[in-house]
Amino acid sequence: MTSTAGSTGPTGVATRRPPERSARVLRFTRAERWVHRGTGLLMLLCLTTAACLYLGPLAQLVGRRHLVATVHEWSGILLPLPLLLGLVSPAFRADLRRLNRFATYDRRWLRAARKRLTAPDLRPAGKFNAGQKLYAGWLAGAVLVMTATGLLMWFTGLLPAVSRTSAIFVHDVLAWAIALVVIGHMRKAFQDPEARLGMRTGYVSLGWARRWHTHWLAEDRPAAQDTREP
User: Distance between CA atoms of 139 and 147, rounded to whole angstroms?
Assistant: First the structure.
């Protein structure tokens, strides 16, 4: 039997992918992706150098403690820089507003997460789900506290009322918390190849967006209009 337009096999055997599966929708602009990469690189540099300073076996293995401490200090100071540069991008500013806003369906997402329910219809979300919003807010606050305590440790006379010992204690405890949260974030990312594709290329499949971010395309019409078919 002969082939017809829209197929590569015999007549009656459809080989073209459904439009929803083949279409791609813009999730992150280039500026947003570079902010994420820059922040992630500086965060990993901070955590790696912190481990080399804090853990004895690693410190002995790496050596050059003064160099490691210098890299740690400057990577911590530069950590907010990608975010500040990203404010130039309207798309990045729009995403910050989304992350800072909790909708009624976000409460449903959190209730489902507490009960360990994973069905997409039980976890409604906009462009970012409730877990991503909490992660972003918590990490932003933690980075501010880490920067403040790091400066107090670096410049001991900056705030005489706060002892260096107190600053070190808060810095160390929060560093462990950040390490655990970042590991959890990376674990979630590795479990979702489509989310990683969106951060790597900027585009995700329309089907994935409609399945896991139910309210995103309905609330953000401009994003829904920028679709591609590979």
Answer: 12
